[in-house]
Amino acid sequence: MYLKLTEGYEAMSNPNIAIMGATGVVGQEILKILEEKNFPFNNIKFLASARSAGKQIDFKGRTYTIEEARPEAFDGLNIVLASAGGATSKMFAEEIVKRGAVIVDNSSAFRMEPDVPLVIAGVNDDDLKNHRGIVANPNCSTSQLMLPLKPLHEYGNIKRMIVSTYQSVSGAGKDAIDDLVEGTRAVQNNQSYEPGKFKDYPIAFNLIPHIDVFVDHNYTKEEMKVVNETRKILHLPQDVRISCTAVRVPVHTSHCESVSIEFEKEVTPEKAREILSNAYGVEVIDDPANSKYPTPLYAAGKDPVYVGRIRKELALDNGIAMWVVADNLRIGAALNAVRIAEKLMEMDLV
Ligand SMILES: NC(=O)c1ccc[n+]([C@@H]2O[C@H](COP(=O)([O-])OP(=O)(O)OC[C@H]3O[C@@H](n4cnc5c(N)ncnc54)[C@H](OP(=O)(O)O)[C@@H]3O)[C@@H](O)[C@H]2O)c1
């Protein structure tokens, strides 16, 4: 039985929660957001690999000891916010669900499973009602696109979309951040540097048009995540054509996306601006005459998805082109995970 409350614990206004992957970049951001939101909990625990077990972590003025993620560590929990990679989620999801908790998973392990809701809070909350213990958090590039796309789609009906991403290194974890920072320092000091993450090409002073492995038709898995996850979240029919090119750029935090959309109905730039100005979680910065548009540095550390450069897409019928920027660690992972946990509690689904 998946949806049972764990006996002996308080009502869901104060769940027992765990952060699995608490030492990682997404885990650390989750901690920040829980603290900022003053997220209510009864008990909290911090889980990571055996490498981190026994180390200390500070949260809300208290020091906690990190535990190794093992099946028994999930006893008595209601919600597990997981950001410890797909293999770890696959290893523990069944144990977590068996013990009566819901896992909100940041990895790609379960996103396309038919009985796992893939949710952006504020976009497809109703899908949460079908959860069987696992809720998946979309890929960071998909996530930031959904908040602006949903209201535009409701107005004009998407027919076709082409996305090019400019993804920051923090999207690839802590080793990738080191490659940018240490690699840049090494180039400046004319020294050599052994990369931890980007083994084929340096990321410092470079761009890499290759994220995750190559799959069908020489698209990458990252690119196909944008295609397939967008369809699942917005419940789009298969004949809506989407394609993506994903590029890693030497930026610390925030992903940017150049997005061209063809709609069934005409959507003028003025209408798109009006829709997006009223959209949940979206902020429009669009004043080209004064060089006002969102940049990754501006978006880092902030919650909204920023949209700018809204204009007519000259190459498509009823087309709109726009520039979408958001903090990949927040809306692309941690913030949406915490918002999902809040929704689960609000909707009495824990
Ligand atoms: N970064 C992003 O923008 C982003 C966005 C969306 C989704 N995600 C997904 O979120 C997950 C984490 O990404 P990240 O960027 O935070 O990676 P990261 O910085 O490399 O952190 C990985 C975390 O997983 C833990 N871990 C590794 N193996 C484990 C095991 N066997 N048992 C328990 N914990 C284990 C690590 O603990 P130790 O410190 O002990 O090794 C660390 O806390 C990935 O699935 C990633 O695809 C990331």
Please provide a brief summary of the model:
The chain is of the alpha/beta class and about 350 residues long.
Provide structural commentary:
The chain has 350 residues and is of the alpha/beta class. It has helices at residues 25-37, 86-98, 140-156, 174-188, 221-234, 269-277, 296-299, 330-346, and strands at 16-20, 43-48, 56-59, 62-65, 67-68, 79-82, 102-105, 134-136, 158-167, 241-248, 255-263, 282-284, 305-312, 319-326. The chain has two domains: 16-139 and 333-346, Rossmann fold; 142-328, 2-Layer Sandwich (Dihydrodipicolinate Reductase, domain 2). The strands form three sheets. Strands 5-2-1-6-7-8 form a six-stranded parallel β-sheet, with helices on both faces. The longest helix is centred in the middle third of the chain and has 17 residues, at 140-156. It starts with 15 loop residues before the first strand and ends with a helix. Residues 1-11 have low confidence and may be disordered. The structure holds NADP nicotinamide-adenine-dinucleotide phosphate. Residues 21-27, 48-49, 51-52, 69, 83-86, 88, 106-107, 140, 170-171, 173-174, 328-329, 332-333 line the site of NADP nicotinamide-adenine-dinucleotide phosphate. NADP nicotinamide-adenine-dinucleotide phosphate is lined by residues 21-27, 48-49, 51-52, 69, 83-86, 88, 106-107, 140, 170-171, 173-174, 328-329, 332-333.
